[in-house]
């Protein structure tokens, strides 16, 4: 018995005076592959995932005694520095505790998982480049594609895939007090400047911690963690939105109290980030038949989601375009049907017009707008995949009417009842819900999905016929993006870890397409010409002086004053 105690203590010991990692449970990252694409084809990149530190068991370094139970810190945590010295986060049982499983290129996240010692709600995962670093994606001028199945997600749930400007190493080099790093999912941040994160900058967020009155596993501390955020996909089977959220400081920045702004503070608008963003939700933009069960994009089936980050002639982000592929057919994003707002993509013109039409505060522009978002995309961002519910607004900002008593333009966001989505309800009724992300591809514009033979509608290239199936070995990173600061977005309990990662629960999200996607430029659609531009390639706009000859079956369309595209 004595020997066993010594063994346990030896296992637990970690360097003092730091946010630490322990190993009562071995940390083994589940593998998840993705593809890097160029005009020459797609190569397989061997990656992995790690769960956010907020969900991990937090206990004393010298024992298995909890430092955090439910939504309360233990007496060990007399202040943030002492707490970080005496407490650690531990390894994860991904399937048994968090309901997260991977197979080759897919990740399945379960909503409620009942383990041997805990009940876990939701989760947040990060893509890893190797055992100790997050995979950094430089998205400006690139295309990002993935498959997703939200058929099991009802009102009030959000299966989200997005990017944030976390540090590549989870903040270890920036904050010497952080000894756990990316391996253990540290360093989260987003545009809500979340204050429910347990450790920020290598210090416990225990000072001024107030347990939540509505969430038994979460609370709010005195510190928050801000950074730029690009929401590629926030969705359930009732509604979906994609939203850029710029910050004046791109990378992770620690804030204090209500000055943080965002969902977690008394004042929504701080001095750094845009909590509302410029969102494109087809239902909110007036097309109520575009996305949903049995609709044009049928949410009862798996769908391929394509997002393009288009550069203007000045090299800055000019447009964020969206396509969907389902059953071998490619669909352009829906057009806005809101008076005074035109287009089907997110650009400065669209965002400005939408803010005015909906009467929303334009924190998007004051936080740097599309140009600042583009700077974050260029610097490099971390891929996040999560499943969560919303203790703040029951996800009504995504899938219902919000504010609930409003009849104003922009308040209708989906068909869910204004009484739906309460976490206490859906954790009981929808406990078996899950989301599946798969087939991630990243690369040059027009390289991550192609037209099926004999069709004029491009679809995802799943055959691998155009890719060189070369695999780089995990932990090697395949993109060569630069590092961007990082931080974490949800709160979880030590015994019943739980994630609540609310995006802006207000009716102030906006999305604005610039220019018209329906005006064709002159184009000889000869696919045999040697200068034929591939599908989704640039064929005009700005100071472009090249060919406008699109590959057979496509036409050069003006997307905005800076960019025309073969489609």
From TrEMBL:
Low complexity bias: start-end ranges: 452-484
Reaction catalyzed: Hydrolysis of (1->4)-beta-D-glucosidic linkages in cellulose and cellotetraose, releasing cellobiose from the non-reducing ends of the chains
Enzyme class: hydrolase
EC number: 3.2.1.-
Top-level lineage group: Eukaryota
Residues annotated as signal peptide: 1-18
Residues that span the membrane, as ranges: none
Keywords, in A-Z order: Carbohydrate metabolism, Cellulose degradation, Disulfide bond, Glycoprotein, Glycosidase, Hydrolase, Polysaccharide degradation, Signal
Gene Ontology molecular function terms on file: cellulose 1,4-beta-cellobiosidase activity; cellulose binding
Segments of this protein annotated with the region Disordered: 450-484, 500-530
Keyword Chaperone part of the UniProt annotation: no
GO terms for cellular component: extracellular region
Domain CBM1: 531-567
Keyword Disulfide bond: yes
An individual GO BP term: cellulose catabolic process
Similarity remark: Belongs to the glycosyl hydrolase 7 (cellulase C) family.
Name recorded for this polypeptide: Glucanase
Species of provenance: Ceratocystis fimbriata CBS 114723
């Amino acid at each position: 018995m004595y020997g066993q105690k010594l063994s346990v203590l030896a296992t637990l010991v970690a360097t003092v005076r730091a946010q630490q990692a322990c190993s009562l449970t071995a940390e083994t990252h589940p593998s998840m592959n993705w593809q890097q694409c160029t005009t020459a084809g797609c190569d397989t990149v061997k990656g992995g995932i790690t769960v956010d530190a907020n969900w991990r068991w937090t206990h004393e370094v010298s024992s298995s005694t909890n430092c955090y139970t439910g939504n309360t810190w233990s007496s060990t945590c007399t202040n943030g520095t002492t707490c970080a010295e005496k407490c650690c986060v531990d390894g994860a049982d991904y399937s048994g505790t968090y309901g997260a499983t991977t197979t080759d290129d897919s990740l399945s996240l379960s909503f409620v998982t009942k383990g041997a010692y805990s009940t876990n709600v939701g989760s947040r995962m990060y893509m890893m480049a190797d055992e100790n670093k997050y995979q950094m994606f430089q998205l400006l001028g690139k295309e990002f594609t993935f498959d997703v199945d939200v058929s099991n997600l009802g009102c009030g749930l959000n299966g989200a895939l997005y990017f944030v400007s976390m540090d590549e190493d989870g903040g270890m080099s920036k904050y010497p007090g952080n000894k756990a790093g990316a391996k253990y999912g540290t360093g989260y941040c987003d545009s809500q400047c979340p204050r429910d994160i347990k450790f920020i900058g290598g210090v416990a967020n225990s000072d001024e911690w107030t347990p939540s009155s509505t969430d038994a596993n979460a609370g709010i501390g005195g510190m928050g963690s801000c950074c730029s955020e690009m929401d590629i996909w926030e969705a359930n089977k009732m509604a979906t939105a994609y939203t850029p959220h710029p910050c004046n400081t791109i990378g992770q920045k620690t804030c204090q109290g209500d000055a943080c702004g965002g969902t977690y503070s008394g004042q929504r608008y701080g001095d750094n980030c845009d909590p509302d963003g410029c969102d494109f939700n087809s239902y909110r933009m007036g097309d109520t038949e575009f996305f949903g069960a049995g609709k044009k994009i049928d949410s009862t089936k798996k769908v391929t989601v394509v997002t393009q980050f288009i550069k203007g002639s000045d090299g800055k982000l000019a447009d964020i375009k969206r396509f969907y592929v389902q059953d071998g057919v490619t669909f352009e994003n829906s057009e806005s049907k809101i008076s005074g707002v035109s287009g089907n993509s997110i650009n400065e013109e669209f965002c400005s017009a939408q803010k005015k039409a909906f009467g929303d505060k334009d924190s998007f522009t004051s936080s740097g707008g599309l140009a600042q978002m583009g700077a974050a995309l260029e610097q490099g961002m971390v891929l996040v995949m999560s499943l969560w519910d919303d203790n703040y607004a029951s996800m009504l900002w995504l899938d219902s009417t919000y504010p609930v008593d409003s009849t104003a333009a922009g308040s209708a966001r989906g068909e869910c009842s204004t009484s739906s989505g309460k976490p206490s309800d859906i954790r009981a009724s929808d406990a078996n819900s899950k989301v599946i992300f798969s087939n991630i591809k990243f690369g040059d514009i027009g390289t991550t999905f192609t037209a099926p033979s004999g069709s004029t509608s491009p679809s995802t290239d799943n055959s691998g016929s155009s890719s060189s199936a070369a695999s780089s070995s995990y932990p090697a990173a395949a993109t060569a993006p630069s590092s961007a600061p990082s931080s974490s977005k949800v709160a979880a309990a030590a015994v019943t870890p739980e994630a609540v990662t609310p995006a802006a629960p207000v009716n102030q999200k906006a999305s604005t397409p610039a220019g018209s996607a329906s005006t064709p430029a002159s184009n000889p659609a000869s696919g045999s010409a040697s200068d034929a531009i591939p599908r989704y390639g640039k064929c005009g706009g700005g100071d472009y002086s090249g060919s406008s000859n699109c590959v057979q079956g496509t036409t050069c369309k003006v997307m905005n004053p800076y960019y025309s595209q073969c489609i």
